Amino acid sequence: MFTRLQTPEGMRDYLPQEVEQYLHIEQTLRKAFKLWGYEEVRSPVIEFVDALSIGVDPDFIDNMFKFQDRDGKILALRAEMTTPIARIVATKMSSKPKPLRLFYICNVFRYNRSYFEKLREFHQAGVELIGCNKPEADGEIISLLLFSTEKIGLDKVRIDLGHAGLLSEILNIMRLQESEKEFFQKILKSRNTAKIEKFTEDFNTPSELKDLLLRLLKCARLKDLQSISLDSGLVKVQKIFEELLEINDILFDYGVEKEVFFDFSLARGIGYYTGVVFEASVSNIGLPLGGGGRYDNLLEKLSGVKLPATGFAIEVEKCLWALDNRDLEISKRSEPKALVKSKSRSAGIKVSKFLRDAKIPCLLNFDETDVKDVIEYAKQAGISHVIFAGSSTEEPLEIHDVELGLVEKSKLQSFVKSVRNRYYE
Prior knowledge:
By secondary structure, the chain is of the alpha+beta class.
């Protein structure tokens, strides 16, 4: 039953503890991205549909939140961040030296998520490396993805990697119609050998090409491509093989090649990818944490200037879900918080001001409650110390350490020093 006190479908509220978890993940990722030399940018939540639709599939456009402004222009809430970043680069950063290394942490909006992905508003953190078409750029992006997820506490993250150009080239050689390509990609994804062989037979696929398809599906690692002999006519395929093997060497240099698996059938569902594509996952949630890939034509479609690019995005909600399902607590440094209760309003305000100037969070107690009730409130509210002040700040304070269950008399300066020693050093 509808009530105006409910949130719309797919939207939710975040309570203080959840906000702290989100902030921890976001701040950790922000530090990781900056450590690799990436700079943060922000885009408006609302953009023109025409701009957001460049290079993406029709289904993706259908899943955008669209509406009309007073001038009759069709707008939409951003559904992902790669296209807005490309627009920013094309319009405001075209004269900047390349390559550009940019990152973002923001919310995005989509309809029709799967049953397990019910949120229509979710948070993405991602990076874009723009202006470099070398395999080293792809290797950096994949390695940074693994570095970032490790920093937030997720180990054993798996990267499944494919190549949009390789899959597209083979489908073109088979001379399939668009609907046939979509159907065949679903069969490839299922890895059902019998269905693949029947499909290739129905479409009179040459035996050499059918053999190549089956061998590609059996490759579990990028290095396995070395064992595949190609017909001399498959020049583009050979070039892509060489690119993938070089990326494998780069990942070896980063020490992450064991976390990367080859999946010939992998196809990201947005549409602008032209080269390497990949997804990151952990075994306990059954859904990708995120992914990305190379998109060398998107900026040209936006501005007419060809500028190669690659990047990734991960979802903060899925990272938290993965941490929670693996019983991994988010490592968060304990921080002090003081509750000040004073006989004198003036003295209480002075004490609280002194604490805030010392970077110690504090709040004032205004209620006429006894000591026992104040301490109980502090326990329930996650407050580390309760300070009972007299009518003057010069008098010793009665300080209750709620975490340790101790009570002592102390001067304000001495208390601040002890808190700094305990929590910040």
